Amino acid sequence: MTARSDPAWETFPPETLHALFEAVEIDDVVDPDVGLPDPIDLHCSREEMGRCFALCLAFWSEGVRRNDLLRLVSTLLRKGDLSPAERLQYKHIRAKYKHLRFALVLYDARHRVPPLFSLTVAIMGHLQDAFRNGRRGAVTGYALLLRALLARPFWAMVKRRARAIRLDTADGFLAYRKAEIRRLAKALEQERLTGHEFHTMRKIVSRHVSFYDTLRSLRPSEHHYKMSRYLSAINGLMGSRHDDMIEQAVSGQRAYRTAAPLDADIWRRVEGLVARYPLGTPQSLPSSKSDGR
């Protein structure tokens, strides 16, 4: 499979898209007794990689309407907040953006997100933090930025660039995933982590959750389900902890850059993943870039 400028990426029936939606909806839900498959199978062909990316692209392109997001932005500019139903809609739209962002990092040979797409997702995250925490001034600023990024020329550019990935090889994708798990292992060696270091760990976990969420939607199996749910538990615990860190930073209780020990439950689960993951011989890979917030 070669690079594509705006080709006929595979399309999917509604039930496949719904299966992915259901998986993403619980990608931060902690199942207390979930375990890893034994062994962990890392095989993924280039053809399957292409199908995974195509599903992520369809999940975003068919599930995100520019006018819906603009309407939510307008409400935030007027009121500074959203109703519970509007917050849920915003959450779902942002989840589709985030899932495609993870796919662009995972499957593209450059393992980085196009800058405009990355910036849009980051602003959406900052905006959500702002209205959740009642920061009216920040809401206005981020909402104006997001509205600018949704202008038709930028919107068209984002859609075009998202489709034009250069698909990695199967070996390259395998090496990338192993390198990511080694970064988690390296982080576990540190006694204390800053907010940024902690968030970097969580982004690695989130990318792997998204991969197995996509795989189990395309090709359901006990292996893919267990990987998805185990990683989701880590993702959920880390997400809750990161929300606390953001709230503490906003309230002035504790600076985001202040280092702190990793919570015991998170450490135990990440250590379990690293110990079971078939890493083999280390290979050198560049760090992921432009993964946004």
Walk me through the structure.
The protein has 11 helices and no strands. It is globular and about 55 Å long. The protein starts with 13 loop residues before the first helix and ends in a 17-residue tail after the last helix. It has 293 residues and is mostly helical. 31% of the residues are buried.
- So how many helices? 11
Give the CA-CA distance, first to last residue: 30 Å
Number of strands: 0
Radius of gyration, rounded? 19 Å
User: Which percent bin holds the helix content?
Assistant: 55-70%
Number of domains: 2
Low-confidence stretches: 1-6, 283-290
- Main sheet characteristics: none
Structural class: mainly alpha
Overall average pLDDT:
90
Question: What is the percentage of strand-forming residues?
Answer: under 5%
Tell the overall outline: globular
Helix and strand element order: HHHHHHHHHHH
SSE topology:
Layout: H1 14-25, H2 46-61, H3 66-79, H4 84-107, H5 115-132, H6 136-149, H7 152-163, H8 170-188, H9 195-218, H10 222-251, H11 264-276
Compact overview of the structure:
The protein has helices spanning 14-25, 46-61, 66-79, 84-107, 115-132, 136-149, 152-163, 170-188, 195-218, 222-251, 264-276. With 293 residues, it is mostly helical.
Entry keywords:
67% helix
